[in-house]
Fold these 3 entries.
Entry 1:
Amino acid sequence: MKLLVLLLGFGATALRAQDTRTVTEPVIPPSCAVLPARLSVIDETQPDTRRIQQALDTCAPGRAVELNADGPRSAFLSGPLDLRAGVTLHIGAGVTLFGSRDPRDYDVSPGRCGTIDQSGHGCRALINGDHVAGAGVQGEGTIDGRGGAKLLGQDVTWWDLAEKARAGGFQNCPRLIVLSHADNFTLYRITLKNAANFHVYYGNGDGFTAWGVVINTPKNARNTDGIDPGASTNVTITRSFIHTGDDNVAIKAGGPTSHITIAHNHFYAGHGMSIGSETYAGAEAIRVTDLSIDGADNGIRIKSNITRGGPVRDVVYDDVCIRNTKNPILMDTHYTASTGPDRDKIPEFTGIVLRNVRIQDGGKITLDGYDDRHRLGIVFDNLRLDMPDAVKWFVAYADVHQSRPGTPNSCFDKFVPMPAR
């Protein structure tokens, strides 16, 4: 390990490279249609898919389809829905939109969803948005993917399938929300829970805002990532609370990915604030600020390997508080989950700055560069270890620059309970 003291001013990396938009708190648009709930108890024979979809199809851009409670009736049941450009799905307070338990509702091709095979991706998502600029999912209500409920006609849950796939193959389970080429998309104040697979994937877009989102899924629910933006630019995830069974946030770079802001968030169980594992198209200009990580497997994490690696650079973490986390800092260029036969996509992580990061207890810090030609370049600008003797280090092929200690960032009000909603 090369341990160097910073030159004066080296740690003053500007926070200019985040989301280039001016992001303000969203406003739910006026309704084009208000649909009253018909169910107080879920009845699989009475899906609401058709009437919700019809309302989305006929709504004018700039307006919202609103799902509302009707007295004791507050439940909607749906299979896959397709959003429309400029149209918001507004889920009202006290309302829950439940995902169908029938795998046939989600089939990409007949009979594939709800199985394990060698290719995966056999299910449509519950909420789908393809080329839907200006759309959104908003409101004080909940979307429940029912990942822990048994599938119709099978004695397994979606999460059981994911566990069985550890022995080989890929589970075909529906994601909760999948967005592709959906510029200027907004998630606002919605609660997402019990996804069968990823909660939110946003890809190939310019402009994504998640504001005040609550994601709450058990920590043992495999492959239930919170929010995964990839191959996109101008992304902001803010004021959100994420407890899940995989990455809390995972920034992916299967296409060029840049100008991302992760600010004022709270993470709980999960696999951390991650970048990767796909980084082969390059991830850069990423800013993570005012973050608490409490009870996760990993904290600040960048992961890739020779089958899917590439450049990750210009990434700044500032004002981060971590506790009760097995791997509070994990820079991993030898991530174990390989894909494909190619072995020429070498991970290279440089320009990584950790400023005012505080680890309140023990754990393992891993700084793993790929080799001597592709070294990890990382700066610790006021990294604070409250219990240094409880921290284990693994360092290989890393150029580590460290500033003189300053005043530790206060974690006094960082760790808060998950919201009740």
Note: Residues 18 and 259 are 4 Å apart (CA to CA).
Entry 2:
Amino acid sequence: MTKTDKKNQKKINLSLNESLFPILLLIIFLSFNVYVYGDDAMGGSNQFILLLGAAAGIGLGVFKGFKFSNMMSQVAENLKSVTGAIVILLFVGALSGTWLISGIIPSMIYYGLNILHPSIFLPSCLIICAIISIATGSSWTTSATVGIALIGISKAIGIPVEMSAGAIISGAYFGDKLSPLSDTTNLAPAISGSDLFTHIKYLTITTVPTISISLIIFIILNFYMISSGPTDNTVLLEAINQTFNITPLIFIVPFIVIVLIIKKTPPIIALFTGTILGAIFALIFQQDILTQLSNSNSLTFEGAYSAIINSITVDTNIESGNSELNDLFTSGGMLGMMNTIWLVISAMVFGGVMESIGALKTITTSLLNLGKSTFSLFASTAGSCLAINLTTSDQYLAIVIPGKMFEKAFKEKNLAPENLSRTLEDTGTVTSVLIPWNSCGAYQSGVLGVSVLDYFFYAIFNWLSFFMTLIVAGFNYKIKKLEIKKA
């Protein structure tokens, strides 16, 4: 976009009603589409609905005098911004494939069945994922590693997967919020003008009560809704042991991946390393599996190669002799991630169009005008973060755009910048996973194999964080003021 184009487009201002039109249209279409397709809506129809919403935005933009080429330029920028996420999704699919045929995921399930009793399973999911996420700084990595295994254990012992997914996501995002290694935890204070460790310390005011309440609720759910009596997993354990070579040595691979993440290795490199190591360990420990997958009587180089490459790229199904386990021992590889990638791309097209015509700025400015009192300022910030997550489908924009828009307003209210950074995290970071067409919601749903609508209610930490930050602001509890520097 040239300087002249930018200057001309600044003169075009959409009204709030005009800005909301594509969004309201999108919500109506998506609601009807989910009503018609149910859980199958994520298979492609929702993606097209997002493109219809983008078409409505383009039509509005052209009618108001925006250039189509400029709108496409912004869409291209949005797509460029998620290139890394798309590659990560592909490698998550690849990693799940080699971690299946190498016995890593089956071993996690095997030892998990021995250790995790149904009576403590849900709170255990939350605590384990919280620890891993704090260590790695990544909710995505947590779900792609231990999250997948915990979902497998959940299926094996008969615990509803939507509950397990909610506990996994709650723990993963708790760690993501508080870990100094997390990108969003670094981004929020950088945008608001705070510093990292002041931000983390101030986050505990809302985050610790929220995770405590979430843990209590999961304990209650476990007690009342899940059998706490003895569970005989002997048949499942024997079937796993007969199908795979189960050994603790296999855990060297996930240990290396976690260390790489802690050392701030780029996620793509860490996941690629995990994928290759999984393939190598399959050759070392699971030769019978490779022989079975290659449909031959003995393992050959060509057979092993095709089995490994297929596990990375397409569907893999391992026959265990047990129907319950057969459903667990499947992987879609990179191909299994394509619906999620398609959803992310479609969402970025819609978000790019909305940003290019100034609709997002109009909506955010309208919310800013509501912030007359201290509480309404917090509420406007929270609402803005949620609106950006709904429209741009990107949690980073849900932090950056409201952060830039409200920074001056917080200063004018004599509020310390950590108030803004905490609100951005409490509402921008955690609500992204609750929106089916958001990149985070699409990712978690694709990786865990549970639709957003199914785990939404049980992702207690995520939606409760939104309300907790408003409750704290409403009671004016520990709302830090700017320090007046003495001359």
Note: The chain has two domains: 15-82+337-453+461-474, 84-336.
Entry 3:
Amino acid sequence: MSRLSLIRDKKFRDHITPEEHPESPARLVALDNMMHSMSLNETFNELAPRAASVEDIASVHSLDYIAELEEGSKEAIELGRLIPLDADTFMSPKTFETAKLSAGAGLVAVEAVASGERDSSFVAVRPPGHHALADKSMGFCLFNNIAIAARHAQKTLNAKRVMIIDWDVHHGNGTQAMFYDDPSVMFCSFHQYPFWPPDSGWYTEDGSGEGRGYNLNIPLPNGTGDRGYFEAFDRLVKPVCHEYQPDVILLSAGYDAHELDPLAQQRVTTLGFAMMSQRLADLRDQTGAKLICFLEGGYNTQSLSESALATMQILNAEGAEASAIVQTSYAIPAASGDSPVTQDRSPDAVDERIIDIRRHFGKYWKTLR
């Protein structure tokens, strides 16, 4: 029996963006096509999403903002064209309904692991969510899917501690803002820094009030490769996760740190994402936490689909089977015989950054001292 539920629907293609916009329906088309070509359509427990209610969305967003988006949708329908919400984010005639479905897919994913039959879910949706603020769209995002799911997990699973890991190449500023003073939700974000959003995601942004120390930013230099991401995961995220002991782990699964992605300058490979997925599976198994992954960025359709499928396959595997998948499917030896794992453009800078972050967060977490 599969360990992973996959929530997807062709309706997520109904959110239309301008021609040449990187966040396009082609992203999910490529993922569906690759699943079909690899004969994986029957591999996972596939579930249909449902639309989130206003009450569900209002667990993290303001009612005025939800109403504002609904009005924008009506305007897009009446005019029969795209309505810009900001320089990067657009409303098409079906965007509002698609965004509600995207948020609701996360609710279905939470309920799928709550049933106890499976311990992981992957939510293959668009529009993405981790930049969406409580009262503002931003960076291709309208509703913060992972934040809505976190609140639903607290209610449905009675989760006392939720850990959100965000490995999208951009800082998850919207998710950070929603839980900045809340120790019941631990937020850890890997991201290229400095990058976008500007002036967002430095490691001294560590929470406020009772949430101090529960906001762990990992700003990585331009050119960080597989090695640096593994180092950050092993020396920061893994020990803090074991100390925090979450009931639920949520992943903002952006794949735009990939070396082929057109929007960033990191050097992570498909193998790198497979090996990080294995680390994630280990955390799930070692802590006993339920695990739910939400598709965020990733704008090269080949690297996005390959890396997302690597995550799904590994989280679906049992024990040593995951290592076998990594080795047989993704660890393709380099022609020179060297390791296929990419190195950092500036390894000393990466290591110094990790040391600085450990030193800063050592005042909050014993395991980092």
Note: The CA atoms of residues 79 and 93 lie 9 Å apart.
